[in-house]
Amino acid sequence: MARLLLPLPIAAAAASRLRLPVLSSSVARREALLFGGRVAAARAPVRLARRGVSAGAEAGGSSSAAAAAQVIGQDEAVEWVKKDRRRMLHVVYRVGDLDKTIKFYTECLGMKLLRKRDIPEERYTNAFLGYGPEDSHFVVELTYNYGVESYDIGTAFGHFGIAVEDVAKTVDLIKAKGGTVTREPGPVKGGKSVIAFIEDPDGYKFELIERGPTPEPLCQVMLRVGDLDRAINFYEKAFGMELLRKRDNPQYKYTIAMMGYGPEDKNAVLELTYNYGVKEYDKGNAYAQIAISTDDVYKTAEVIRQNGGQITREPGPLPGINTKITACTDPDGWKTVFVDNVDFLKELEE
Question: Residue ranges of the VOC domain (predicted)?
C-alpha cells in the first residue's frame, strides 16, 4: 500500500502515514464551525488522512495526469487558486525518541497530545500534537521509526515558530526542564519583536515569538530557498498563498518572505528565507512535508505543473478508499501534500 511520507533507507517499511480519528459531528456542523456558519456550497478545509501512500504509488497513473490536464487552463488557473479553500493542516517530521519529545512539547511548549497511533506491522508510531483540534488548528505530526534514534536535519530546514505571551517566562520554564536555549530573549535583529530560540531533544529549532493571545500559537515553519523571488511567485500562483510581508536584512545578508492564507497573528504561515549567494541546501532526512487542504486535487496538480512544480503523486483516490490526494515538490524540492476537502469530510463520518 502506498505511503505519503517516504521511509528512511534503514526503515523502508516504517514510513509515516497520515491518519485521523473518526469524529461524530456532521459535515454541516464542521463546515459551520470552520466558516462561521457558511455551509451552503462552500467546502471546508480539512486534515490530511494518513492512509498508506507508498513511494511506489507516488508516480501515479497516466490517466490521472490526463484528467488533471483537462480540468483547468492557464487563463483561469490564477482566479481558481484564489477561490480554492486552503489551509495549512500539519507539518510532518521524524524524531528519535517519541516519548521524550512528547514530554518536552507538552511540558515546555504547552502543546497537547491530540492522538497517538502505533503501527507495529510497519514498525512506526505517529503522534499528533498542537494547541487545538486538528480540524481547526495547525499541528505537528511526529513520526518515530522503530530503532532509529537520530536523523540529519540538514541545512535547509530552519525552525518552527511558536507565539507566546511571555518569552522570558517560557525560556525560564524550558531551562528548568533541562531544555536547550540557543538565543536568550531579546529584540529580533533589526526590529522590536521579542524572540528567543530553543532546541527540542532532536535538535529541531523553535523560535519563541512574544505576541498577544492568538488562535494559532503554532504559527510558522521556516524553510530556506535558493531563489526567493522564484519561491514567492510559485507559492502565490501554484499554492494560492499571499505574500504577507517581505523584509531584507542587508546587514546580516538575508531576506525573508512570509507566505500564508491569512494574517500572521491568526494563521500558520511559511517563512521563506534567502541567504545571500546560497542557492542550494542539504535537506537531510528528518523534516518531511506540510499538508494543505484543497477543493480539487486535479486542478491543484495542474496549476502546480503550470507554475514549475513537480507532481510526485498523481491526483486521485488512495488505494482502498475514496479520498483523493496529490503530492508535489516546489522548485527548491520542498514537499507538500494536498487532500480533497469533501472526500475527507465524508471520510470523517465513517
Answer: 87-211, 217-341
- Name the residue with higher pLDDT: 86 or 48: 86
206-256: pLDDT as tens digits: 999 999 999 999 999 999 999 999 999 999 999 999 999 999 999 999 999
Catalytic center residues: 207
Q: Output the CA–CA distances (angstroms, integers) from residue 151 to 228, 279, 283, in the order listed.
A: 27, 23, 11
Binding residues for Zn(2+): 141, 159, 207
Residue closest to 350 by CA, chosen among 24, 49, 46: 24
The predicted structure's pLDDT at residue 296: 93
Query: What's the pTM value of the predicted model, to 2 decimals?
Result: 0.81
Residue 56's contacts (CB-CB under 8 Å, 6 or more residues apart) are 2
Task: Calculate the alpha carbon distances from 112 to 21, 79, 98, 103, 332 in Å.
Answer: 16, 38, 14, 10, 32
CB-based contacts of 99, cutoff 8 Å, min separation 6? none
Cβ-based neighbours of 13, under 8 Å, separated by 6 or more: 7, 122, 123
Among residues 100, 92, 104, 97, the alpha carbon closest in space to that of 128 is found at 92
Is the pLDDT score of 147 beyond 80? yes
